[in-house]
Amino acid sequence: MINFGSGNTVIKSKLISRRMFVLTAAKTIVFCGIFGRLVSLQINEATKYKTLSDKNRFREWKLAPQRGVLRDYFDKEIASNEKVYQLHITPENSPNLETLFFRLKTILNLTDKRIFYLKRKIAKQKPWEPIIVSDNLTWSEFSRINLFLHELPGVEPIVSVARQYPDQSTAHLVGYVSQVSQKDLQKKPYLKDMSVGIAVGKTGLENKLDEDIIGKVGFQRYEVNAFGKRIKQIQVDPGESGKNYRTTIDLEVQKYTSEILEDKAASVCVMDIYNGDIITMASSPSYDPNAFVHGIDKKYWNKLISNEKKPLNNKAIAGLYPPGSTIKIIVALSALENGIWNPKKYLNCSGVTELYGEKFHCWKKKGHGPMNMRSAIQRSCDVYFYEVARILGVDRLSETAKKFGLGKKVLDGFIEERTGVVPSTSWKRKYIGKSWYLGETLHSGIGQGYFQSTPLQLCLMTAQIANGGFEIKPRVLVKDNKNNLREYIKYKNENPNEPLPLDMLVSNFDLKPLFRNQENINFVKDAMFAATNEAGGTSFRSRYSDQKFMFAGKTGSSQIKRFTEEQRELEIKQKDIVYKDRDHALFVAFAPYKDPKYAISVVVEHGGTGSGSAAPIAKKVIKKVLERDQLRENVKSLTGEEI
Amino acid sequence: MFQPRSIQSSMTFRDKILSMDFVLLFSILLLGIISMFAMYSTDGGKFDYHTKSHILRFGIFFWMFLIISLFQIRFWYQTSTLLYLAFFILLLGVKYFGLTSSGSQRWLNFYFMNLQPSELMKIGLILFLAKYYHRISTQDVNRIKFLFLPVVALVAPVLLVVAQPDLGTSILIALGGVVVSWLAGVRIKFFAYASILFISLTPIAIAFLKPYQKSRILTFLNPDRDPLGAGYQIIQSKIAIGSGGLFGKGYLNGSQSYLDYLPEKHTDFIFTLFSEEFGFVGSLFILLLYSVIILRLIRIGDITRSSFGKLYCYSFATAFFIYVAVNMGMVLGLLPIVGAPLPIMSYGGSSMMAIMLGLGIAMSCKIYKDTPVN
Q1: Which of A246, A264, A299 is at the close of a domain?
Q2: Residue A71 to residues A68, A165, A475, A478: CA-CA distances in angstroms?
Q3: Which of A166, B56, B137, B262 is packed most tightly, with the most Cβ within 10 A?
Q4: What is the residue range of A152's domain?
Q5: Do A610 and A543 reside in the same domain of the chain?
Q6: Are residues B298 and A20, on separate chains, in Cβ contact within 8 Å?
Q7: Which of A394, A366, A512, A374 is CA-nearest to residue A451?
Q8: Is residue B167 part of a domain?
Q9: Domain span holding position B324
């Protein structure tokens, strides 16, 4: 038994050892495999996994930067930042959201709809991401929240800053900010790295300057655990607030203008004729831009949208109007510059003229009688200008009009600004696909037909005539463009008997004259003086006898609807027809006449006649502007501005 | 020729102690101490529940290991069938009285501890088969008649454990049984048949798998399939190990673990934690320590005279190796996550108990290496 057993044991032992050898070899191979894997993970790919580990560990919370402040010329804020009281909830810190919302509902005025929306949003995002319940609490709501804070786990009362617009009068120029939309993200690549909840400029300067004014996003870096709970703060970068800007606007004048305009659908532009500073660019009626900052409420939005006076529209740059009789100064200038008309030439106005059987009426049914070019501008005789335009032709007219600023954008970067139309034969062929009729030239000669311009264009046109015919670059921001006109004027005043040749102007002062013969500019200016300050002039009633405020201007009214012959016979007054069908009233002027400094344009939608509704507004604004001229000069010398 | 009684009686207590394998003993002790420090780190650098409990267990079971090793190897030979049956009854008990936790029924409540009989079965099956193959002659091993009992002894507990469900442990139990049979000389063709049968049954088995088990297998095949779900563990484990680099992040500085990115860091992923804090150097040291333990176990098998001792030591060494390899392969992303603890290092009483029992019996083989078992 034992012998057998021992023999068997020996065989068995050998067998077991043989097989064990195989297993040991296998073990060695497997451990080598594990060793290899350790080498690969911890030595070869260590950097990659260290990065991944840090990516796990750290999470950044972005800090919204403060938006840059916009100021007027006298450093008054026109877009500032105000303290706002906000309520945030961090869902992971709240044990029961249901009860929390129930409590909040009794403390704040939260609607069920809003709560439903918030819950849905919470469900979509990570539990550690805070959600904004209310971004603009009143002080009493905020203090109530603080009082009950110990009963509201997860709630964080936060003092933040939000955009504030102190005055509604600048609403159109400054524009407004609102929440970022999908479209903004596509159009503004710099928004990509910004935090959620940041406000973005939507219109006006807020939109134009957005990239610089929005600031640099800061961040707080925390070490977080696997559940996203913040363990400790690692790094903070407070970011940078946006650039501040000073504008050329005079808030005082802007406010005053808005008050004069009341709720008329109108706009007023005032421009420094030498450096292009826009003193005022008002559009009426206005709206409250603050309403957009925290998300506009539907009722107010509907009210704005349904208002037929279009309060959201910046009429100064986005409103298009036929320039009407204000174009006559360009027609006259163009005729003189092209040498096709003797200004002393008399024509007889009988109230109507005919071309190929079509009747062209003067606004004065009875006619003006014999007119030369000066009196035709003074009294705004249509018949005279029909004839001038007929001889001049639309293409030469269009060339001059464009030169003086019509038909192209005046400002840079305002998305709402419109180009307008300066018609010509080639324009019509291109955009309408038909050839030009001579009759249309006659309409163009009194600023009707295809002509379309913005009030700011008309203001620029007037300014460039008022300054002696030199090109200026209008600007809203101080130090935006440089103009050298003032230096030239100074030089000229010091050396009055030394007329400078054109090429010297260009080389020494970097000026671009828009005229061939400056006498022609002076002629037009004189005619505009007559229109305001000599009896019979269209804006005679709005004149100032005080030399200090004396201005020269041209009225205009642009037809919305053509008068039928019947209406013409009945001599229907503008105020008797429906508001929507009334003519737009226009007025352009420069002041003071002796030593011009400012140009102004006033457009009152459906205001009737330029002399009746636009010129009186201009009169008041001009006075205000001139009264503040010295103040403006003082600031200029104080800050040592070159221009 | 043999004088079993005289040898046994001539051994004093001092002789017994001196004939222990001290390399093995100190390797186990060192590993135990390392595991205590690792556990302290998983508790976030505090002397907390897991640390205390682990130290207590290691203390108790290390003493148990010493006591077991002083028992004669014959005693273990004689009680092996009994132990197997006892463990099997405990497994049956789990089926009816077991505690259920996270969807599987694995534990029996014994007041002082929750016992996981499937862990003990790992050792029980090896003991049972070692005795069985010790008793039958080499010629009989490959006779169908003698294959019947081993197959039943293997399949019955494995099925019970699979049904708990606990795929990881059942695979480890089965592998232990297969190893003993292989060493005893069962022909390759039988393993081939078993494999073919197993593979052909796999589709049916998959139908019985729980959804989470299926997803684990799919996840292993492609960890990025569901990075926040089932693949999360593998990805985070790899990040932790990889970010440890050559020298590690330093003790108590493993960000992956103390910020809770690492799942199951006390149990299955303890090696990950250690590897993150001590880097490649530390990992290699642990790997070497395990290699030493396995080699010492094999050496005991080499010098043991009885077939039972040889079969047991070789099989246990191989099983021990498999536990280590499966756990490390798992946390290194080489194998699917099946739930296999790392011997001695991992938190868990039953696993520690089973390993210490196994080591104790192996040490007993060393002390009584020249004693025949029957």
Answers
A1: A246
A2: 10, 11, 14, 10
A3: B262
A4: 60-246
A5: yes
A6: yes
A7: A394
A8: yes
A9: 80-342
**Do the bridges between strand A177-179 and strand A199-201 make them parallel or antiparallel, or are there none, so unpaired?**
antiparallel
Number of domains in chain B: 1
Residues A238 and A265 in one domain: no
A451 and A582 part of one domain: yes
Interface test with B, best of A4, A16, A231 (most B CBs within 10 A): A16
Q: Kindly report, residue by residue over B13-30, the tens digit of the pLDDT.
A: 888 899 999 999 999 999
∠ CA B153-B157-B158 to the nearest 5 degrees?
A: 105
Q: Of B131, B116, B122, B118, which Cα lies nearest the Cα of B177?
A: B122
Per-position DSSP letters for A358-405, written without gaps between them: EEEE-SSTT--EEE-HHHHHHHT-HHHHHHHHHHH-HHHHHHHHHHTT
The number of distinct structural domains making up chain A is: 2
Q: What ranges make up the beta strands (E) of A22-115? A: 58-63, 70-71, 77-89
The last residue of a domain, from among A192, A212, A246: A246
For residues A265 and A201, membership in a common domain is answered with no
Neighbour count for residue B224 (Cβ, 10 Å) = 9
Domain co-membership, A368 together with A398: yes
| Dihedral sign (CA A67, A72, A75, A80) | negative
Q: What CATH number is given to the structural domain containing A451?
A: 3.40.710.10
CA-nearest residue of chain B to A9?
B307
Give dist(CA A322, CA A422) in Å, integer.
10
A139 and B CB contact within 8 Å? no
Contacting residues of B for A25, CB less than 8 Å apart = none
How far is Cα A91 from Cα A466, in angstroms, rounded to an integer?
Answer: 65
CB contact under 8 A, A42 and B239: no
- pLDDT tens, B256-312? 888 888 878 888 899 999 999 999 999 999 999 999 999 999 999 999 988 899 999
Cβ of residue A6 closer than 8 Å to a chain B Cβ = yes
CA distance, residue A120 to nearest chain B CA (Å): 22
Task: Give every CB contact of residue B37 below 8 A, 6+ residues apart in sequence.
Answer: B251
- To the nearest 10 degrees (0 to 180), the angle between helices A485-494 and A502-509 is 120
State whether A31 and B244 contact (CB < 8 Å): no
Q: Which residue of B has its CA nearest to A34?
A: B329
Q: Distance, in angstroms, between A66 CA and closest chain B CA?
A: 34
Side-chain half-sphere CA neighbours of B117 within 13 A: 26
Map residue B157 onto helix, strand or coil: helix
Burial class (CB in 10 A: 0-12, 13-18, 19+), B66: middle
Of B137, B287, B306, the CB nearest to A34: B287
A234 and A307 together in one domain: no
The answer as to whether B72 is a domain residue is no
Pick the residue from chain B with its C-alpha nearest to A27.
Answer: B321
A28 Cβ under 8 Å from any chain B Cβ:
no
Q: Which two tokens stand for residue A606?
A: 């459906």
Q: Is residue B17 part of a domain?
A: no
Task: Give the side-chain half-sphere CA count within 13 A for A449.
Answer: 20
Beta bridge partners of B109: B114
C-alpha to C-alpha distance for A140 and A145, rounded to whole angstroms: 9
- Asked if the structure places residue A183 within a domain, the reply is yes
A266: in domain: yes
Q: Is residue A137 part of a domain?
A: yes
Does residue A17 belong to any structural domain of this protein? Answer: no
- Could you state, in chain order, the average pLDDT of each consecutive group of 10 residues for chain A (643 residues)? 55 86 93 94 92 84 85 92 85 81 83 85 78 82 83 80 90 90 85 75 92 86 77 82 91 94 92 91 92 87 91 93 94 94 92 89 89 93 94 94 93 91 93 91 92 95 92 84 68 69 65 87 94 91 91 90 68 75 92 90 91 92 93 77 52
- A473 and A335 share a domain? yes
- Tell me the nearest-neighbour CA distance from A29 into chain B, angstroms: 11
Distance CA A467, CA A486 (A): 10
* Contact at CB, B259 and A226, closer than 8 angstroms: yes
Q: Does the residue B139 lie in any domain? A: yes
